[in-house]
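Write out this protein's structure.
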Amino acid sequence: METVLSVLLGLGLAAACGFRVFVPLLIMSLASRPGVGLLVLGDQFSWIGSTPALIAFAVATVLEIAGYYIPWVDNFLDMVASPTAVVAGILVTASAMSGDVSPFLKWTLAILAGGGTAAIFQGATTAARHISSFTTGGLANPILATAESGGSALLAVLAIVLPVLAFALVVAIVLFGAKRLLFRKPAIGTA
């Protein structure tokens, strides 16, 4: 059961990385600090809770969030964040797995499920930003940036505190997005 919960935790954090790359890493670092104890990381990943990592994640989070409020810089950040989100998704998924999980299974799940989940969410946010930039000239992008940052923080905290609920939310978001994409009505005047 511990292994299943750690996988669900990792997937929730990976989805959060798809919204913002560094927010989940900052929250993981805070949650794994001595005295907080909400998240126990394996020996290989204990560096995530170190003071230098906490400072680096905090600075990176502030810069990332601020960058998404600058018109057209946000679109450039999406281009850079796409591969970075996948790597972060792999990292958070692997670091969340605890128990007697073989390294092969851990890294296979981290790469396929964690990286894939982060890629799906990052792709959706990138598409939303491009649509927003095109249709509103970028005026709605700050609203989108706020929703993404808040969603990332909420999902990361939820993944750490209630991993089953976070995973259910991730599945619900994916199913909602797939339904909207696959079953949308064609625009009037198109064949």
